[in-house]
Automatic annotation (TrEMBL):
Pfam family, one: Pro_CA
Protein name from the UniProt record: Carbonic anhydrase
Required cofactor names: Zn(2+)
Keywords, sorted A to Z: Metal-binding, Zinc
Low complexity compositional bias, start-end: 53-68
Function (record text): Catalyzes the reversible hydration of carbon dioxide to form bicarbonate.
Family affiliation: Belongs to the beta-class carbonic anhydrase family.
Domain of life: Bacteria
Length: 86
């Protein structure tokens, strides 16, 4: 049984928030790419700026630094969840 099904059906949760996932290609793109031609993508990837500023290793596609940045980004975004409109 998928965990989201259990959360909604058994636990009665009304909201499920996904803050990140493993193998995030966007996190790998967050550093070192010129995204001026893709302003919407660049704006979205700015959410990882605080995580990089906290000292997460520079991401490398497919490697542990990408996973570390993704985890740090989730941890850093969690305090903002109560402020997010529903």
């Amino acid at each position: 049984m998928p965990p989201h099904w259990y959360a909604v059906t058994v636990l009665g949760l009304a909201d499920i928030v996904v803050c990140g996932h493993s193998g995030c290609g966007a996190t790998a793109l967050a550093d070192g790419h010129d995204l001026t031609a893709l302003p919407a993508v660049a704006d979205w990837l700015r959410h990882a700026d605080a995580s990089r500023a906290r000292g997460a290793a520079p991401p490398k596609a497919g490697g542990e630094p990408v996973a570390a940045l993704a985890r740090d980004n989730v941890a850093g975004s969690s305090p903002a969840l109560p402020l997010t409109p529903r």
